[in-house]
Amino acid sequence: MNIRQQLNDIFQTAMTAAGLPAECSPAVAPAKKAGFGDYQANGAMAAAKKVGTNPRELAAKIIENLGEQPMIEKVEVAGPGFINIHLSESWLAGTLAAARADERLNIRKADDPQTAVLDYSHPNLAKEMHVGHLRTTIIGDALARLLEFQGHTVIRQNHMGDWGTQFGMLLAHLADKMENQDAEVALKDLEVFYREAKVRFDEEDGFADRAREYVVKLQGGDEDCLKLWQRFIDISISHAEEIYEKLGVTLQRSDVYAESQYNDDLPVLVNDLVDRGIAVQDQGAIVAFLPEMADKEGNPSVVIIQKKGGGYLYATTDLAAIRYRANVLKADRILYVVDARQTLHLQQAFTVARKAGYIADSQTLEHCAFGTMMGDDGKPFKTRTGGTVKLAELLDEAVERATALVADKNPELSAEERSEIGRVVGIGAVKYADLSKTRTNDYVFNWDAMLAFEGNTAPYLQYAYTRVRSIFRRAGVEPSDLQGDIRLGTDAERALAIKLNQFGEVLDQVAKDTFPHVLCTYLYELASAYMGFYEACPVLKDGVSEEEKVSRLQLCDLVARTLSTGLNLLGIETLEKM
């Protein structure tokens, strides 16, 4: 159900009937002020300017051409040409009844399902995941869940770094370690392992030469070296899988499509770009010059495709990935959930891919950029000693803090209950604190703010869901047993009904624009609208008629299901009791 789209279609038809050009849009949007209808069609003013007529008169003419519309109770011209739209109470009640009867809350799947390739998380397999991987993983997973809910085919691509010169260093160190212990023990702490290897590379005589020999062996396909490399990869991926399980993200081992997968295509790609005249030899390297991305002085943007010594770069691998995703995976949309600091790099790769014809005009390349998670000092989030924060340790601390908070609020809970609630609240708080911010912005990481039970936080929404569900336990009824009409006799009931009906249009907007914070804002507004309803409209109190009670319990059920569905799409769990 997308009220906004339905109204847009109705008013578009009326504008066409009124003789307006097809490019004139109704510009339907939810009303921002009480008393000005439920929605507004704001396109009459722009259309009047285009055709040279009075906007109020044009708005009246559009209304004349609306015809009979069951979903609209009345319309009126306001101000310089706004059209206020009041939705029919009976129609609203009918949509809510339909939502209750449908496991998807009457949210229709996309009419034109697409194949979306989502590139997200991509840790470097030489190191443990750290806070720098948090935003890409959380945002990417929320988008994947939402697009799948809408009926699109989602192909997750975890573009892990598993190749390059650093692996020679790591493999040489691992080979030495395995003389005294097995690989699992040696790689138990990847950060320690990496630091040990780096120290040896920088300081130990002969080690750097051995590391370079391993690179040559690895790239040459040496069987023993490849086995060692594969062992390293398997154990490293297991570390990442532990994080994914803690975070509750949907990435699987089968979603890993690492840098090494494109090795065979890299020389082919370079030769193809040269043959097409897009890349040329320059000072021994293979370079693409992009006048489309020239600077203010007119100098073209420079993309190195192959280094002087024959080595390949991230740009080469990303171009190979674009070819694979467009031509093999047949993607309609390719979305990169990647740090905003990579904007130039991705723009260059996208431009080269377009010029080379690696991607069709109908296929989109989208950079879902995100800002940096900052500490209280306004700098990128670090440990107190200035080191990188391991993601596993951050999540453990979130659960510990949430468990202590829950124990303080509900000391009667058993240790098992506290542990489970603490896990759900702690992980949910970290994820929601990120998702609720406009992803292109930096944000300050603050434990107290994210774990608060007031305001736009996961604990608040999780608790709101629990409170709604507790009403049914007090009433001694199951939502599925409720029979009767939904009545919207008060302003609070009507406001809640409209907010519930806006769920579908919010999901459509997030799927199109890839900003999960819009869904977070909606869920917070829904919880707030519910609180207004609950205070104004008694549900179980004496004096409430049976018809009112049944109607209001149905509204409560829809709120709980919408909150649960919305939070699940964000990758956040709910609890029946807190």
Automatic annotation (TrEMBL):
Transmembrane segments: none
InterPro entries on file: aa-tRNA-synth_I_CS, Arg-tRNA-ligase, Arg-tRNA-synth_N, Arg-tRNA-synth_N_sf, ArgRS_core, DALR_anticod-bd, Rossmann-like_a/b/a_fold, tRNAsynth_Ia_anticodon-bd
Keyword vocabulary terms for this entry: Aminoacyl-tRNA synthetase, ATP-binding, Cytoplasm, Ligase, Nucleotide-binding, Protein biosynthesis
Motif position, 'HIGH' region: 123-133
EC number: 6.1.1.19
Domain Arginyl tRNA synthetase N-terminal: 1-87
Keyword Cytoplasm set for record: yes
Top-level class of the enzyme under EC nomenclature: ligase
Protein name as annotated: Arginine--tRNA ligase
Biological source species: Microbulbifer elongatus
Name of the gene encoding the protein in the UniProt record: argS
